[in-house]
Amino acid sequence: MSTFPISIPRPVHPTGVWGWITTIDHKRIGILYGITAFIMFISGGIEATLMRIQLAGPELDIVSAAVYNQLFTMHGTTMIFLAIMPLSAAFFNFVIPLQIGARDVAFPRLNAFSYWTFLGGALMLKLSWIGGATDAGWFGYAPLTSVAQNPGTGIDFWIISLQVLGVASLAASFNFIVTIINMRAPGMTMMRLPLFTWMSFITAILLVLAFPVITVALIELTFDRYFMFNFFNVANGGSVVLWQHLFWVFGHPEVYILILPAMGIVSEVLPVFAKKPLFGYKTVVLAGAIIAFMGWMVWSHHMFTVGLGAVANAVFTVTTMLIAVPTGIKVFNWIGTIWGGSIRFTTPMLYSLGFIAMFLLGGISGVMHAVSAHDAQQQDTYFVPAHIHYVLFGGAIMAILSGIFYWFPKYSGKMYSEKQGKISFWLIMLGQNVTFFPMHFVGLDGMPRRIYTYVEGMGWEFWNGVATGGVFILIIGFLLVIDNIGRNWRNGKPAPADPWDARTLEWSIASPPPEYNFEEIPVVRSLDDWWATKQGGAHKEIPASGGSGDEGHGIHLPQPSYWPMVTAIGLFIAAYGVVFNDLIVPWGIAAIGLVIGFVGVYAWSFEPVNDPEEDSTH
Q: Which of 149, 167, 326, 552 is the residue whose CA sits 20 to 30 A from 69?
């Protein structure tokens, strides 16, 4: 039987900066998300460092009270919406199509639009520093956000940037829901999905359900500020407690939006470096789904001191305690996975083990908060920042660092320095405990949160000084991480396709993956199919370079496009015009932005589908 060369009809992709601007490749978009979010993480860290320096001793005057209010508001908003969420989205973009055996996401251009919209929302929030940033806390409690108490543009930037970021999150979430449901490789049933993909799927559903709630709240706040409505104006019949309900109905599912992807990363890393299958795969999936469901039943534990009454407080005390059960189940599953395993203490494994330890400490203080009487004593003290930082830094950030090092060979094609990675882990592990654990002590001793100074003799000087010293340990640790990643991305040792002897499909292709991901869409026959294939002796040789793409048959890749970016620019200009609605002509800038956005959407909708043409050489 004779064979004939088969060419792969695929577009010619631009190179250089223009290539990144027009890319719709999920892998490149994942890298863009990751780099941008890490820069935002650094900016949030700078804001936190300034706060800790201000609190290092009593009656310091490093920053003013007004600037301090802006710092803690921007720090919280940055870390939640511009750092942890998009760092998780970076993994969604890069990893999910590879794990499910797909060549890209369902809607590649929508994927690009979500990134450029996220970038626009992030820049908009950070630009608010120019004229005075928002200063009402990341939760924006009414009436602190009213025009009467906050007449500047800082609150407006905060409101509109969160709306823009919500558009980006919803676009990405719908995309990944459709991708996971419709684009799985043959044989990959839902109960054969890798755990990271499962947790990402649940997270995307949570995002789709939660963001409309905060959107409604933000629209009502916009109407209050711009059109003198009275949703939250008590003098005219509004309710400030309404804002708290709306915000925390979104805000507590948001906590699980931040932590479920981290749980998925840890559930991928532990089995690989323990050389054991994940203990209780179905139980972990079920626990994740229960956490997502029960996340809607606990929001008022943030409002125990508002005055909802004994019955409401009792109900939310019980539900908050109950949600600890599926979380505890996951912890025992992870312990069962490493128990008796042949453990390799690599950098990703250390960060995952650190996640379990730190998240467990945050969970214990969370159960303490679940008791409404106990919570009344801790309300608005530094005990609360201690808890949330153990959950989101010790939890989400530690897991994200685990994922960065675990998938580093896959997205860069290089190996990192293991020695430097371990040193950075121990510094970050030490630094976060030195920084955040003393907050428990000063909180129980009555130190209020969100104060910019304190008088001498309160007994808070020592532990605040210790916490500030811990920040500088963290800084050294993260500088080592940045150096390790940056230097080895360019000059590191070339990585093999499967350096960890891993279990999931992304490790069955070259590092970094070729543009088309898979020459042939794999057929999945079991959970951890790549591991089963290797154990069965059917290991396929993989070109170290990733191949040229000429080995495949009929691979179809969509054309790069700049229209998603144009649409996002239009949205950014329109949002900026809402903040400055009286420049030039009333609402004129917003109108210009809407026109640009409409042109972008119109041109985007008429782009060709790039069906492969028949090759005359067949």
A: 167
